[in-house]
Amino acid sequence: MRRGKLPRTLAQLWRDAPLYLMMVPGALFFIIFRYIPMYGIVMAFENFRMARGFLRSEWIGLTNFQKLFSSAFFPMVMRNTILISLYKIVIGFPFLIILALMMNEVRNRYFKKTLQTIMYMPHFISWIVVASLVNTFFSMSSGVLAQVTGQQIDWLVSPAKFRAVLVASDIWKNAGWGTIVYMAALSGISMDLYEAADIEGATPLQKVWNITLPCIWPTVLTMFILRIGGIMDAGFEQILVMQNDSVYSVSEILGTYSYQRGYVNAEYGFGAAVSLVQSSISLVLVALVNWLSSRSGEGRLW
Amino acid sequence: MVARRKSGKPGARMTIGRALCYAFLAIVGFAMFYPFYYVVMYSVSSYSQVIGKGAILRPYGFTLDAIKNVLKDPNIYTAYGNTLFLAIVGTLMSLVATLLFAYPLSCHVRGHRVISFLVYFTMLFGGGMLPTYYVVRQAGLLDTLWSLIIPGLINPFYVFIVRNFFEATPNELKESAFIDGAGQMRVFVSIMLPLSMAVVATMTLFYAVGYWNSYFSAIIYIRSASKRPLQLILRDMISQSNAEDMGDFSTSDLTPTTMKMATLTVSVIPILCVYPFLQRFFAKGVMVGAVKG
Amino acid sequence: MKKCLSWMLMLALLASLFAAPALADDPAELHFITRRRGNAYEENTVKQIIEEKFNAKINWEILPAEGYDNASQVILASGDYPDMMEWQSSGATVKAEVPLMAEDGVLAPLNDLLETYGQDILADRPEEGKWLWVDGERYSIPCRPGNVTETFITIRQDWLDKLGLSIPTTLDEFTEVCRAFTFDDPDGNGQNDTYGLGGALNSSYLDTLTVVMGFFGVYKDWMPQEDGTYIPYQLTDNMLAAAKYLRELYMLGVVDPEFISDTRDRYLEKKSLDTFGIEQWYLTQTGDTSAWWTTFKANVPWAECSTLPLISVDGYETIWPNTIASPTSVATGGFQLLIFDQCKHKDTVMQIINYLATQEGSELVTFGPKGVTWDEDENGNYYSLNADEETVKQSGQELYYVVFWHDIFKRNSDPLVLDGLEKYTPYVRMGNDFPYTYEGDTSALGSLISEHMIKILTDASVDPDEEFAAMVKDYNDMGGAAYIAWYNEMIG
Known about the structure:
Number of helices of chain C: 17
CATH architecture of one domain in chain B: Orthogonal Bundle
Structural class of chain C: alpha+beta
Number of strands of chain C: 12
Oligomer: heterotrimer
CATH class of one domain in chain B: Mainly Alpha
Strand content of chain C: 5-15%
Largest interface: A-B, 94 and 109 residues
Distance between the termini of chain C: 84 Å
CATH topology of one domain in chain B: MetI-like fold
Structural class of chain B: mainly alpha
CATH topology of the largest domain in chain C: D-Maltodextrin-Binding Protein, domain 2
Order of helices and strands of chain B: HHHHHHHHHHHHH
């Protein structure tokens, strides 16, 4: 090491010592409760039996993965996972931002406050109840929508429409909650910028495009990268309670497929293997997007 | 500081664009509000009168039986207490841990990128229920309320949000404080935190709601009935009412659906009462004048 | 003499001092873990009666129903075993794990205990759960013996009377009755809100549509073909015939179209109101009709129901489609009682479980203490004493529905129910004797079939024969052919 560098590094470390100390509780948490249990990943390579545990279950290497990739259902399930996820991201992600921006334009404090409280409500309703509600509202002949409009539409039974119901209900449930982060970011934008724009006679749209968006852009990027990380889970809990057999071939995703085999059919190793595949794909995608965003200089995760 | 007009941006007026905005938000708001309203009305209705009614605007055959039935569980009030404990103590601990962890990352200490990656890694990969159970058991946390807090203390997602927020705060204030001889901790507490109230409030809300809704950890870590949190008890009721042979089911007004609706009403109303208090921290203009000084 | 006597007295005294501890029995301390079923209080009279009867002190840990399988899984994995635990899991899980646990010595061998103390438990089903045995030794007690069909079917007699029809005995009459039920406003409220048949496909809830399958000789198990090979019932010619008839019914409009998407709850709610003309009701294991029957009678008190006889169709053998699970098939495996080897009072535990399988114990645990919550009249019929809520609560029980006396079905049953049971039992078939689990896409294949069947039933643009053939091809291509081959090989 070059002579001058060592003392500088040390000096830096010394100055940063309190910062490192601050990280100790969190670090302990991650190590103890996240990294130590990671040996459980080995389940994917075993014919895991509860009675035998991790050490004594039979080692079968990549067999579980072979079973997954050679299953006739794998292509269909993969396709559904990606398709549903993409729909949810492509429609839901911009919707979220637009919603937050619109909320930002609201002048009336009471309207805004009520609106915010209302928008958070769906988040609290568990998917079981939401499924029940969707059934009540969208049932073809006796549902609320059918009664009110007099039209009988097979929302829940037609493959194309069902996908729409999935995406819409997901957005409905999570959009309001998702705007919280953007609202926090928006609240951090300095008023001066807007005033300067007003002096130059900017329209509201111009203000949004030139001031608001650039200011929250890092947040948007980070949220986007994190969202991409969830692409392999196209909504397990939601689909598990909402799917029915007539839309099976468009709604079965990796998660629900793995649940049937990995949990109900006691092929635990198989379930772990699917999980590992999902995680690995996600990691690759996120790494890619992260690298791309680092080239633009902002929003990178690491 | 010059006094600012209350409405913030000067020259705000109702344009077509703004009107469209309001209309859109009103529709979205209604779409989000009505189902919840429906749930509340359903839970105080007699199901035989309300089924197939379509869009309901009022209770049909008003009855508090469903809600009373939910509250009749001998453990419900301890459960509320437990969840309250989690929501308060848990949130506090999580908040402190997360903020303390994210701040140094935002200062770009040596190794911060590796650490960020390691943190993110845990979002995707994990050992599963059993290994975590063994660790919790080893730590002596089984059958305590702490087992519902500590194993889930920090959510990596929030670490990134907080870190980014800190990173976005201009450095000038920190620099001037360092020049004045302040230590790292002091800078964090006296300068960074007050500027970050919006994100602190956000995290409080997120963690509090997370703890309020937690139930799965309780399934595997908690054995004593007196330590069960609220959501576990409520979900248990729903599970039970799904059993075909539930003997308790003699009243004609209680069905699995009314039970679901009633449990939802019972668990969400407290949260909705708390949220308005946190609202104030999302107010705009927190940064006004700070940089200029 | 006196000296001799006093010596004898002293000896007697000494002897009694040593004998006394042996005579005064300390109550056996037991730890049970079961799943919550009702609002049983911590202190309840049923538990006390059992404790007194067997001189035991029971720590009866009742875990929530929600996530019970996860909770029991960690308990089994942790090594902190109780004395007895109720295990609920999928048949496949239990089949995979119990023999391994037995080999490890975690579970207690039960043959001798059953021989000595447990004669009532498996009295009429000595081979139950055979596939879980290790070297001929039993290591778990199977619950929920399936020895009777669990449902009965009703048809609305008052609607028939109103419309001037009689109970259908042929397929054409059945169609006509369904049509009238749907379109001729039998409930007289001027609204078109009734149907002949309904269902909830979503929830694997057995419904009236399945019963129609039985008219054509379909039963829900692997069915042998003429050449001796077995195929899944959904692929048989019987099924094709049944599907075509159901399609006819659906196109006529007599089937509630929401049967595909309805959740079980929604369907049950509809059922308990004045909606369907032909209905199927679930009989609980304890002989009590499902709570929905009670709800139905409360909501529609003017309804008169008769049992619907199974209809025979030319060329097919009428059968009750829901087979009783064969004792050895995997499906029944999910509910087991485990007694752990480290238990110090295995005999007491076995005695308690056996008690539950006797008439007296079963009645205690199902209905409460005799004379307090219920009693018998001169004919031996059960009647409820309408005790107050507190008393009923304190008579909570946690092991009803798990092990019970085989004739408890006959207790407390509506005469209509008994009539139905009598009518259908001759048509009930026991499932195939098949103990193996296939590690493959069995569930996915089932859903695939279901998807095609729905199309056959509901899609007017589809030709049923073609779609059926497409379904069979699809099934075989997606891994079904391998499954069928495996099954036939295993069944030998």
